[in-house]
From TrEMBL, chain A:
Residues 150-329, 470-649 form the ABC transmembrane type-1 domain. It is found in: Cell membrane; Membrane. Keywords: Cell membrane, Membrane, Transmembrane, Transmembrane helix, Transport. CDD domains: TM_PBP2 (cd06261). This is Glycine betaine/proline transport system permease protein. Belongs to the binding-protein-dependent transport system permease family. Pfam families: BPD_transp_1 (PF00528).
UniProtKB/TrEMBL annotation, chain B:
Belongs to the ABC transporter superfamily. It comes from Streptomyces fulvorobeus. Coiled coil: none annotated. Keywords: ATP-binding, CBS domain, Nucleotide-binding, Transport. Pfam families: ABC_tran (PF00005). The keyword Transcription does not apply. PANTHER family: GLYCINE BETAINE/PROLINE BETAINE TRANSPORT SYSTEM ATP-BINDING PROTEIN PROV, GLYCINE BETAINE_PROLINE BETAINE TRANSPORT SYSTEM ATP-BINDING PROTEIN PROV. Residues 33-269 form the ABC transporter domain. InterPro entries: AAA+_ATPase, ABC_osmolyte_uptake_ATP-bind, ABC_transporter-like_ATP-bd, ABC_transporter-like_CS, CBS_dom_sf, Gly-betaine_transp_ATP-bd, P-loop_NTPase. One of its GO terms (molecular function) is ATP binding. This is Glycine betaine/proline transport system ATP-binding protein. GO terms for cellular component: membrane. GO terms for biological process: glycine betaine transport; response to osmotic stress.
Length: 660, 353
C-alpha cells in the first residue's frame, strides 16, 4: 500500500491498527470519515421526515407573493415616494441625461468624426497598428448597417465605464489604504466576480424598471468590482522599499499617495480599467434583456426569432468593439513605465495637440461632405447571404452527413446520452444526497468553511422552491464543465509541450477571451439550432480559453529543476507529466477547474435565450411577462448556484496565495 | 557641553521590541533574557536592546553586525522610520522622540537622509526626477529642483544618464542615484543601510571609494550600516559591533581588531589582516639609545604593513616612528612580526579625538 510509507516506524502502532492509523493521517480520509459520521446520524432522521427525491415542500419558503407585493409597491410609488423622488429618481434622470448627452455628441461628431477619435486615441495610447484596427473596425460597423446601434451601445458604455471606474477607484482607495476595509470588501468583491451577469439584472429591473437607467446601473455594479479589486491590490502591492525611501525623505501622507503609491500601481490600475471595460461591454450587451437597446438588443431580437444573419450583423460590431477596446487598453498598460518611443515631436502634449487637430479637421470635413449618419447606400447587407448560407447548412450539415453524422445529430446525441441522464439523475437523487455530495467535494478540495458555504447555498436553492430547474441548470453545467476540462487539459498538455503549438494557439485564445459571452450564442444557434446542447456548446467554447491558458501556464511554471531532476533519472515524457508536472501544477489545475465552472455557469444561464431552460429561462420569463417575483427568485437561486459552484471548486491554496 | 561638541546623534538606552506588549520588556523582568528565552516567555523579539552611543560631527560611524543583529532596525530608529520602544534619542541636542509629525517630517526632509540597500527608486521617474524627488517633497519649484538635481547627478558620476529610468541602469548606477537623491536635500547627516550589499564586489569597491571621496570632500557626518567587516574597517572612523540587538564593542577599527572585547568579536576579526589595520603607534616600543638617528621614518598612524615595507626596503633592523619631527618610538622586526602573528600584546594607541 502506497500510504504505508507515510507511517514512520517509530509512531506506528501494532500491526493490526496500522492501516487505520495510516488512513487517519490522510486529511481527506479524516474529512470524509467525519462527513460519513454526520450523515449516518442525520440522514435517517431527515429521510424519515421528508422522504422523496425533490426538495420537500415543507422546507420551502414561497417568496413570490411578498416579492410581488414589493414589485407592486415600487410600481405604485415610483412617482410619489420620497426615496424615488429625491434619490433614485435623480439617479435615474442623471443616467438618462448623460447617456443621451454622450449619444448626441457621438452623432454630432458624425461617423467620420467618431472613427477619427477612436483611431487617434488608439494611436496615442497604443500605437499606429491599433489606430488602423480601430478605424477599420468602426468603418465595418457602419458597413454592416449598425452605426446607430453601435453608437447607442457606445454611449451607454462610456457612461457606465466612467461611473464604474469612479466607483471602483473610490472603493479601491478605501480598501487599499485601510486593512479593515480590505478585509471586509475582499470576499464581497471576490464573490461578485463569480456571479453570472443575469443575476444582476432582476434587482435592478425591480427598482428602476425596464430601460436605460437600469441597464447602466446593472453594468456599473457588474463592472466596478475588478477596478476596485485591482486598485486595492495595486495600492497594497507597492514596493515597501520604495515606500520607506519616500517616507525617509519626509513625504506627507498625501504626497506618498500621489507621488508614489498611485504611480507605482499604474499597471494594476490600467489592468483594472481593461477588465472593467470588457465586463461593462459584456454586461451592456446582455442588459438588452432589461432594455439597454443598441447592439445587444439587435442580437437579442434576432436570436428570439432565430434570425442568424441579423444576429451576426449585430454580433460582429460587438466583437470588433471588444477587440479594439481590449487591445488598446492592454497595449497602454504594457507601455506604462517603458521609454517613450517614436519621434520626439509626437511625444507628450504636442502629440495630443496634433491628435486634437486631426480630429477637428476630420469632423469639419465630414460635416461638409457627408451626413452625420452612415450613408444608406454604403451598407452591405450581410443578413440575407448569411441566412442563405445557414439554410444550406441546415440542409446539408445538420444531419445525414456520411460517417460523422450532422451537427444536429451531435446535439441530439449530446442531449439524449449525456444531458438527459444527468438531469434525471440529479433530479431523481434524494435532495439530501446531493447536499452530501457537494459537502464531500467541497471539503476534499477546500476547507470546512467552503464546504459549509456550498451546502448552505445549495440548501437555500431548495428553500427558495426552485430545486428542479436548478438541478436542470446544474446538469448542464456539470456536462459542459466535463467537456471543457477534457478538451482544455488535453490542449494544454500539448501546448505546454510544443512551443510551436502554443504560438499557433495564442492569437486564437486572445480573440476568444476577448469576446463577450452573449456573442457565443450566435454561431452555436447557426450550427446546432436551439436547445440545451447549443447552450452547453457555447459555454464550452467560452470557458475553454481560460482553462487552456491557466493550465498551460501551470504546467510551464513547474520548477525546471524538478523537471531536470526527473529527466536525469531517466523518466519518460509520460512519467514526467504524471509524476512531476501534474502534481506540481495542482494549484493551477484546480484554479482552471474553478474558472471553468464559473465561466460555464455564466453562459449556461444566458443560454436560456436560445432555449436551454433551467433558471435562466425563469429569469427571461419573469422579465418577458412582467412577473418580476418569479425572476427574482430565480435570480437569487442563480446567485446561490454560482456561490455553491465556486466554493465547491475553491482550492485552499487560492486564498493562501493571495494573502502572501 | 559647548555647541561644537554636541553629538549629531545621542542615543541612550534605546530599545526596539517587536511583539505583543512590547513596551513592558525594556527595564522589566525579562530585559536580561537571551533572545530565544525572551521569545519563548513573551513572544517578543528585541531587535535593539539597550543601545547607547554618540555619533560625533564629521565622523563615519559604522554599525556592523550579521543579519538579524538589529543594525538595520537601529538605523531606522534614528529618524523614527521605526518607532523605538524606549530610550532617549537626540539629534544635535534636540529630542527626536518628542517631535510631533510636522517636526519629524522637517527632520527627515532637511537633516537626515537615507540610502537604502535596495535603492528604493521610483521606477516611473527618470534619474533626474528621482534625484529631485526629495526637493519636490520639500515643495521646491520644478526648475530650481531640476537645476540642483542636475549638479548632483554630475557629482555622483551619472552625467548623461539624466533621462534614463532606474530599470535601465546597473545596480551600481542605481545606488548612485540613491546617493544623489540623499545628497540633494543637503542633510547634516547621511544614513546608509547596507547600501552596497546588493552590488557585485568590484562595483562595491568603487562605491566605497565614492563614499570615502565624498566624506573627504564634504566632511559630512555619516552613519553606515553594513555586515561586511572589510567595508566597516575601510570606511569607519568608529565601529559599533552589534549582536542580538546589543552593542558588543564600540571603538576604532584598530581597537576592534587589536583588542577584541570578547570571543565573539575575536572570532569575527580573526581573518582580518591585522597588519593592514593596526598602526605602528600600537606596535612600537620606546627607542633605545642611538636608535633615533638611523632607519626610515614612519608616522604614528601608518599601518604596520606600511612600516614592514619601509623596514624591508631600508634593509635595516627597525624604523623610527616620527610624530611631527619628534621621535616617539621604534618598530623593529620583533614588534612588526608580533603584530602579524597576533602574539603581540594588545596595546592599541589611545583613541585620538
Amino acid at each position: 500500500m502506497a500510504t504505508a510509507h507515510a507511517a514512520t516506524p517509530g509512531v506506528a502502532g501494532p500491526p493490526g491498527r496500522r492501516p487505520l492509523l495510516t488512513l487517519l493521517r490522510r486529511p481527506t480520509a479524516v474529512k470524509l470519515l467525519a462527513l460519513a459520521l454526520i450523515a449516518a446520524v442525520a440522514v435517517p432522521v431527515v429521510h424519515a421526515r421528508w422522504s422523496g427525491a425533490p426538495w420537500p415542500g415543507a422546507l420551502t419558503v414561497d417568496l413570490t407573493a411578498p416579492l410581488g407585493e414589493v414589485n407592486d409597491w415600487i410600481i405604485a410609488n415610483r412617482d410619489s415616494h420620497p426615496l424615488f423622488l429625491y434619490f433614485l429618481g435623480h439617479l435615474s434622470n442623471a443616467v438618462v441625461l448623460s447617456v443621451r448627452g454622450v449619444y448626441l455628441l457621438l452623432l454630432a461628431l458624425g461617423w467620420a468624426g467618431v472613427t477619427a477619435v477612436a483611431a487617434v486615441m488608439a494611436w496615442r495610447a497604443a500605437g499606429s497598428r491599433l489606430a488602423l484596427t480601430a478605424a477599420v473596425s468602426f468603418v465595418v460597423c457602419g458597413l454592416l448597417g449598425m452605426w446607430v446601434p453601435t453608437m447607442q451601445t457606445l454611449a451607454l458604455m462610456v457612461v457606465a465605464v466612467l461611473a464604474s471606474v469612479a466607483l471602483g477607484v473610490l472603493l479601491g482607495l478605501a480598501a487599499g489604504l485601510s486593512d479593515r476595509t480590505f478585509r471586509a470588501l475582499r470576499p464581497v468583491l471576490d464573490t461578485m466576480q463569480v456571479l453570472p451577469a443575469f443575476a444582476y439584472l432582476l434587482p435592478v429591473a425591480l427598482v428602476f424598471g425596464i430601460g436605460v437607467p437600469g441597464a447602466v446601473l446593472a453594468t456599473v455594479v457588474y463592472a466596478a468590482p475588478p477596478m476596485a479589486r485591482l486598485t486595492a491590490l495595486g495600492l497594497r502591492g507597492a514596493d515597501p522599499g520604495v515606500m520607506e525611501a519616500v517616507s525617509s525623505l519626509g513625504a506627507t501622507g498625501r504626497q506618498r499617495l500621489l507621488t508614489a503609491r498611485l504611480p507605482l500601481a499604474r499597471k494594476e490600475l490600467l489592468l483594472g480599467l481593461n477588465q472593467t471595460i470588457m465586463m461593462a461591454l459584456s454586461m451592456a450587451v446582455i442588459a438588452s434583456v432589461i432594455g439597454a437597446g443598441g447592439l445587444g438588443d439587435r442580437v437579442y431580437q434576432a436570436l428570439s426569432s432565430v434570425d442568424v444573419g441579423a444576429a451576426l450583423a449585430a454580433g460582429i460590431p460587438i466583437v470588433l468593439l471588444a477587440v479594439v477596446l481590449d487591445r488598446t487598453t492592454e497595449a497602454a498598460g504594457r507601455r506604462v513605465g517603458a521609454e517613450p518611443t517614436g519621434p520626439a515631436v509626437l511625444r507628450g502634449a504636442r502629440g495630443w495637440g496634433l491628435a486634437a487637430v486631426i480630429v477637428a479637421a476630420v469632423v469639419v470635413v465630414g460635416r461638409f461632405t457627408g451626413g452625420r449618419i452612415w450613408p444608406e447606400g454604403a451598407i452591405v447587407a450581410v443578413a440575407g447571404p448569411v441566412n442563405t448560407a445557414k439554410e444550406w447548412m441546415v440542409d446539408h450539415l445538420y444531419t445525414g452527413v456520411p460517417v460523422i453524422g450532422g451537427t444536429a445529430d451531435w446535439a441530439a446525441h449530446f442531449t439524449n446520452w449525456i444531458l438527459n441522464p444527468l438531469r434525471s439523475g440529479l433530479q431523481g437523487l434524494p435532495w439530501w444526497s446531493v447536499l452530501l455530495i457537494v459537502a464531500a467535494l467541497a471539503w476534499t478540495i477546500g476547507t470546512w468553511r467552503t464546504a459549509l458555504t456550498a451546502v448552505l447555498a445549495l440548501a437555500a436553492i431548495g428553500v427558495l422552491g426552485v430545486w428542479e430547474p436548478s438541478m436542470d441548470t446544474l446538469s448542464q453545467v456539470v456536462a459542459a464543465v466535463a467537456v471543457t476540462l477534457v478538451i482544455g487539459f488535453a490542449t494544454a498538455v500539448g501546448a505546454a509541450r510544443s512551443e510551436r503549438f502554443e504560438r499557433l494557439l495564442r492569437p486564437v485564445l486572445d480573440v476568444f477571451q476577448t469576446m463577450p459571452q452573449f456573442v457565443y450564442l450566435i454561431p452555436v444557434v447557426a450550427l446546432f439550432g436551439v436547445g440545451r446542447a447549443p447552450a452547453a456548446a457555447a459555454a464550452v467554447v467560452y470557458a475553454l480559453p481560460a482553462v487552456i491558458r491557466i493550465t498551460t501556464q501551470g504546467l510551464r511554471g513547474v520548477d525546471p529543476a524538478a523537471m531536470e531532476c526527473a529527466r536525469s533519472l531517466g523518466a519518460t515524457r509520460g512519467q514526467q507529466l504524471r509524476q512531476v508536472q501534474l502534481p506540481l501544477a495542482r494549484p493551477a489545475l484546480l484554479l482552471a477547474v474553478n474558472q471553468g465552472v464559473v465561466l460555464v455557469l455564466a453562459v449556461v444561464i444566458i443560454g436560456a435565450l436560445v432555449g436551454s431552460g433551467g433558471l435562466g429561462y425563469l429569469v427571461v420569463l419573469g422579465l418577458a411577462q412582467g412577473d418580476l417575483a418569479t425572476g427574482l427568485v430565480a435570480g437569487a437561486a442563480i446567485v446561490c448556484l454560482g456561490l455553491m459552484l465556486d466554493r465547491v471548486t475553491q482550492p485552499t491554496t487560492r486564498t493562501a496565495r493571495k494573502e502572501s | 557641553m559647548t555647541a561644537t561638541d554636541t553629538p549629531v546623534f545621542a542615543v541612550g538606552n534605546l530599545w526596539k521590541v517587536f511583539g505583543p506588549k512590547a513596551d513592558r520588556v525594556p527595564g522589566g523582568e525579562h530585559a536580561e533574557l537571551s533572545p530565544a528565552e525572551l521569545r519563548e516567555r513573551t513572544g517578543c523579539t528585541a531587535a535593539v536592546r539597550d543601545v547607547s552611543f554618540d555619533v560625533r560631527k564629521g565622523e563615519v560611524f559604522v554599525v556592523m553586525g550579521l543579519s538579524g543583529s538589529g543594525k538595520s532596525t537601529l538605523v531606522r530608529c534614528l529618524t523614527r522610520l521605526i518607532e523605538p520602544t524606549s530610550g532617549t534619542l537626540a539629534i544635535d541636542g534636540e529630542d527626536v522622540l518628542a517631535m510631533d509629525r510636522t517636526r519629524l517630517r522637517e527632520l527627515r526632509r532637511h537633516r537626515a537622509a537615507m540610502v537604502f540597500q535596495h535603492f528604493g527608486l521610483l521606477p516611473h521617474r527618470t534619474v533626474l526626477d528621482n534625484v529631485a524627488y526629495g526637493l519636490e517633497i520639500q515643495g521646491l519649484g520644478r526648475a530650481e529642483r531640476r537645476r540642483r538635481a542636475a549638479g548632483l547627478v554630475e557629482k555622483v558620476g551619472l552625467a548623461g544618464l539624466e533621462g534614463r529610468r532606474p530599470s535601465q541602469l546597473s545596480g551600481g548606477q542605481q545606488q548612485r542615484v540613491g546617493l544623489a537623491r540623499a545628497l540633494a536635500v543637503d542633510p547634516s547627516v547621511l544614513l546608509f543601510d547596507e547600501p552596497f550589499s546588493a552590488l557585485d564586489p568590484l562595483t562595491r569597491r568603487e562605491m566605497q571609494d565614492e563614499v570615502v571621496r565624498l566624506h573627504r570632500e564634504e566632511g559630512r557626518t555619516m552613519v553606515f550600516v553594513t555586515h561586511d567587516l572589510s567595508e566597516a574597517l575601510r570606511l569607519g572612523t568608529r565601529i559599533a559591533l552589534m549582536r542580538d540587538g546589543g552593542i558588543v564593542q564600540l571603538g576604532t577599527p584598530e581597537e576592534i581588531v587589536g583588542s577584541p572585547a570578547d570571543d565573539y568579536v575575536r572570532a569575527f576579526v580573526r581573518d582580518v589582516p591585522r597588519e593592514q589595520v593596526l598602526t605602528v603607534a600600537g606596535a612600537m616600543r620606546p627607542p633605545a639609545a642611538g636608535e633615533g638617528e638611523r632607519g626610515p621614518a614612519v608616522r604614528p598612524d601608518a599601518t604596520v604593513s606600511e612600516a614592514i615595507e619601509a623596514v624591508a626596503r631600508s634593509g635595516g633592523p627597525a624604523a623610527r616612528v616620527m610624530d611631527n619631527g619628534r621621535l616617539v618610538g621604534v618598530v623593529d622586526h620583533a614588534c612588526l612580526l608580533g603584530v602579524v602573528a597576533g602574539t603581540q600584546a594588545a596595546n592599541p594607541r589611545e583613541v585620538a579625538a
